[in-house]
Amino acid sequence: MNLSTYEPQMQKALAYLEKEFQGLQVWRATTGLVENINVETDYGTMKMNAIALITISDNSTIKIEPRDKGNAKHIANAIYEANLGVGVDNQGNFLFVRIPALTQERRDQIAKQVKALGEETKANIRKIRQDAMNETKSELAAKSISEDQHKANEAQVEELVKKMNGKIDELVKGKTEEVVKV
């Protein structure tokens, strides 16, 4: 069994978690909040970052400049439908997304969301671990590896899972602290 096939899968799960954390609304504006929103355009459904230039104007404002000015209305609707709790000011040629100050209730909701995303990522890691364990068991059953090698493979997989879960816990803790910080 080769861990090099399972470690990249676990790294992808970790990268997904980091990307999701970027999209969470915290006290400051980030492009990650809106760049992956799906927008219904005249050409079909597209990601926001594919149809518009997204920049940060200041700590609480995101500026969105559609490449096709006719999409401004569609972009505004997509942001409203995403239910991000932000204000959208459609200026015609561009839109301003204003990030309101977070209430304690909203901070608590986001902190719960952060923990839920962390648990979801850990579940994905467990699925990958299960695949790795099944592979080493099947190799043992086919007698292509020894009992000692099987135990060593299991130990390597468990060590990798422990390392990834530690990184997830670290990310969740850091993001939770960032969210609840006043």
Q: Key terms for this structure?
A:
182 residues, alpha+beta, Topoisomerase I, Chain A, domain 4, Gyrase A, domain 2, 2 domains, four-stranded antiparallel sheet, two-stranded antiparallel sheet, 6 strands, 16% strand, elongated
Explain the layout of strands and helices.
Layout: H1 7-22, E1 38-41, E2 44-47, H2 48-51, E3 52-58, E4 61-66, H3 72-81, E5 87-90, E6 95-98, H4 104-141, H5 147-180
Q: Which residue ranges are poorly predicted, with pLDDT under 50 across at least 5 consecutive positions? A: none
Strand content: 15-25%
Radius of gyration: 22 Å
Decide which structural class fits the backbone: alpha+beta
Secondary structure tally: strands: 6
CATH superfamily of the largest domain: Ribosome-recycling factor
Describe this structure in words.
The protein has helices at residues 7-22, 48-51, 72-81, 104-141, 147-180, and strands at 38-41, 44-47, 52-58, 61-66, 87-90, 95-98. The model has no long low-confidence stretch (mean pLDDT 88). The protein has two domains: 3-20 and 103-180, Ribosome-recycling factor (Topoisomerase I, Chain A, domain 4); 28-98, 2-Layer Sandwich (Gyrase A, domain 2), CATH 3.30.1360.40. It is 56% helix and 16% strand. The longest helix has 38 residues, at 104-141. The chain has five helices and six strands. The chain starts with 6 loop residues before the first helix and ends with a helix. The chain is α+β, with helices and mostly antiparallel strands and 182 residues long. A four-stranded antiparallel β-sheet has the order 3-4-6-5. Strands 1-2 form a two-stranded antiparallel sheet. Helix 4 runs antiparallel to helix 5. A hairpin with a 4-residue loop joins strand 5 (87-90) and strand 6.
